[in-house]
Design goal:
heterodimer, A: mainly alpha, B: 274 residues, mainly alpha, two-stranded antiparallel sheet
Chain lengths: 187, 274
């Protein structure tokens, strides 16, 4: 926490708030898709977007703890705006911790697409672990569980990991990220 | 209509039908309860709902939540509106359970079999039970969401975790800035509509909407951080610690939630009822 600059903290918070806002229409979208895809486990793919709070902030600022903090802020904002209520903090803890663990293992040094995919995917798995208990998935047949795990990993990897890279690169073009770690990397 | 301060409109304010739940600015005994006490109570009740595998537990929790809300004269109509949505969207969840539940014992009531799909009556019952559990958790958390001022929650939370001012204050700003973003998202959407932006795919739309929103968010962050640094909040230390006071309402709420959780656990493990 000591290495975070004030500017970075506020950027994470403001990004988290903006993502929290995006999650509100996403919740409605997801609830609609869920009805169709739930029996096949494919709905888990769309759950990946809920992990982007961790990956986007970490990809821009690249410091220890930012992934966890970013996801917690976004979860906190979501708590007061959707029906998930205080449970969204539980989810955010699992997602943020899982993404943070991947960055920690990589030593906060490597920031390529592969690492981002892994971070998003593992954040998705963290989310799945909470849901496994919450919705009692243990009672499902093994085929459905495998399909769910596969889709949540891929969904987290694409919708949180790769999408975060893409959005960050687009943001970089606008010039707002000039003073952050993302713009100081050697290309 | 009740006045939602942070309640958000989903379809751009064109009509009020799609509104998610938000803080209700009123005066009641639930509003007086310390947010920390409230969240501890919530977590206990939710844990009881998750552990229990009985049919009646979620129903009792729903009744409990509605009784508490009614005692503070808070309307339950927004929750009921939400119920309709959840039930409608839970059809998939029920179907998943209906067709893919692993048989626990040999005694299963097979309804039909088609390839790997094995639809059983037990699976259907499980699906309904999980939806009931979701409704119960929704009603319990809405006690918290409807009656807790986010600012109060954050202040208590920051004090509990001894967050430094430079971490705690930005979180307050994050909440303050929400309505601005809401209107900004709407502005971006309208601007793209005026320019006849064609969204090729769903992802294209997601990126086209989020990039302008996030870019303006970061620009705003820069200005805020300059203002905060100018006020010396960057290097400020946590000087005074306010002792949290607990009111009679806190004790009542804590007593109610502990005793009800206890009752639910006893019911789950010691009662022969379903």
């Amino acid at each position: 926490m000591r290495s975070w600059k004030l500017n970075e903290i506020i950027t994470v918070v403001v990004l988290g708030a903006a993502i929290g806002i995006l999650w509100v229409p996403w919740t409605m979208f997801y609830e609609t898709v869920r009805g169709i895809f739930e029996p096949f486990g494919f709905n888990k793919f769309f759950e990946g977007f809920w992990c982007i709070g961790a990956t986007l902030a970490a990809f821009i600022i690249r410091k220890p703890g930012i992934a966890f903090f970013g996801e917690m802020v976004a979860g906190f904002i979501e708590m007061f705006s959707t029906h998930w209520g205080i449970t969204s903090l539980i989810w955010a803890t699992a997602q943020g911790a899982a993404a943070e663990a991947v960055f920690f293992v990589m030593g906060y040094r490597r920031w390529n697409k592969f690492v981002m995919f892994l971070a998003g995917g593992f954040a998705g798995l963290g989310e799945y672990a909470v849901e496994f208990i919450f919705y009692g998935y243990a009672g499902y047949r093994i085929e459905l569980i495998i399909s769910q795990i596969f889709w949540i990993f891929v969904g987290g990897g694409i919708l949180a990991g790769l999408l975060a890279v893409y959005i960050a690169r687009e943001l970089q073009k606008t010039g707002v990220l000039d003073e952050f770690a993302i713009s100081k990397e050697r290309r | 209509m009740p006045n939602f301060t942070i309640g958000m409109r989903l379809n751009g304010g064109r009509n009020n039908t799609m509104k998610l739940i938000g803080y209700l600015d009123r005066k009641s005994w639930l509003h007086e309860v310390n947010p920390l006490v409230k969240s501890v109570g919530m977590i206990m009740l939710i844990t009881a709902a998750v552990i229990s595998h009985k049919f009646l537990t979620p129903i009792m929790l729903i009744v409990f939540a509605f009784a508490i809300l009614t005692s503070a004269s808070i309307p339950i109509s927004p929750i009921l509106h939400f119920y309709k949505l959840v039930v409608f969207f839970s059809i998939g969840l029920i179907l998943a359970n209906f067709m893919f539940t692993r048989p626990v014992s040999d005694e299963i009531t097979l309804i039909f079999k088609f390839g790997p799909i094995m639809a059983t009556a037990e699976g259907l019952a499980r699906g309904v039970r999980i939806v009931l559990r979701m409704l119960a958790i929704l009603s319990v958390t809405s006690i918290f969401v409807l009656t807790t001022d986010p600012m109060d929650f954050l202040k208590v939370f920051a004090q509990l975790l001894h967050l430094q001012p430079r971490v705690a204050y930005p979180m307050l700003i994050g909440l303050r800035i929400l309505p601005i973003f809401e209107s900004e998202l709407e502005r971006v959407r309208l601007a793209q509509k005026v320019r006849r932006v064609r969204y090729k795919t769903f992802f294209h739309k997601l990126v086209l909407l989020s990039v302008p929103l996030l870019a303006s968010a970061i620009r705003r962050a820069e200005r805020i951080s300059l203002a905060m640094a100018a006020k010396g909040l960057d290097t400020a230390k946590l000087r005074s610690k306010k002792r949290t006071k607990y009111s009679p309402e806190d004790r009542i709420f804590l007593f109610l939630s502990i005793s009800f959780t206890f009752f639910l656990l006893v019911y789950t493990f010691c009662s022969p009822c379903p």
